[in-house]
Amino acid sequence: MEVKLRIRRFNPEKDQKPWWGEYTLKDVEKTNSILELLHRVKWEQDGTLTLRRSCAHGVCGSDAMRINGVNRLACKVLIQTLNADRTIQVEPILGLKVVKDLVVDFEPFFEHYRSVMPYFVAATSTPTDGRERKQSPEDRARFDDTTKCILCACCTTSCPSFWASGEYVGPAAIVAAHRFIFDSRDGAAADRLNIMAEPGGVWRCRTIFNCTPACPRDIEVTRAIGEVKLAIQRGVR
Ligand code: SF4
Ligand code: F3S
Ligand code: FES
Questions:
Q1: Given the DSSP bridges, would you call strands 88-91 and 64-67 parallel, antiparallel or unpaired?
Q2: Which of 66, 108, 135, 168 is the most exposed place for a label (fewest CB within 10 A)?
């Protein structure tokens, strides 16, 4: 089949403002992904098209973009899931500065991620008997969902509260905080809850719910945010 792509282009070294590039591709299979089509545009029509990707299998989280107005991973969207009669529109994700074409500056996103202490802090000193720290299956289940995050930023860059203020840490950082706050072996939950209660923390979330359907890992993002809010209100995790 033939597919038309409309891609948001911007090269800060020569463009005054962003513009739309239109590309027609022939012999497209319905099982092709958007990433494969972007590769074809780059390799067959315009080598200057700039995008970020690595695994091509929904694992690395590096090819988040806005496809027909919705944040998705380009490697996970197949043509057969879209209306190919309509021109497919591809843009960079919103709320982060565009570096070039579909590549945005992730540094503010990772700065927020780092601010929530996204690492394990042992609650007690290393067991002297050389054995592991025990955790029941029920306690493990409390944070199972939020371990799945691949830091793609689809959630944060679909959140109107984040668009309104870059001060908001955003849903991805809260998901990272949740993963450790609810880990029974961790000893820094109180510190993370204090960070979450700051002006740029969870209370900036207005429960708009854009983040949950945007997540390619099907993490219940809004639910995780709600659990962190409750833990702050109750003072316990
Ligand atoms: Fe991506 Fe989901 Fe993690 Fe957000 S929570 S960064 S959408 S994987
Ligand atoms: Fe934003 Fe999701 Fe909250 S879209 S406002 S973080 S529920
Ligand atoms: Fe790795 Fe798409 S290229 S998730």
A1: antiparallel
A2: 135
Query: Among 61, 87, 104, where does a domain finish?
Result: 104
Q: Give yes or no for residue 154 CB within 6 A of ligand 1.
A: yes
Q: Is the pLDDT score of 132 beyond 90?
A: no
Cα of 180 to ligand 1 centre, how many Å? 16
pTM of the model: 0.94
pLDDT in tens, 32-84: 999 999 999 999 999 999 999 999 999 999 999 999 999 999 999 999 999 87
**Full residue range of the structural domain in which residue 23 is found:** 3-104
Tell me which of 69, 104, 139 is where a domain ends: 104
Q: How far is the CA of 218 from the centre of ligand 1 (A)?
A: 8
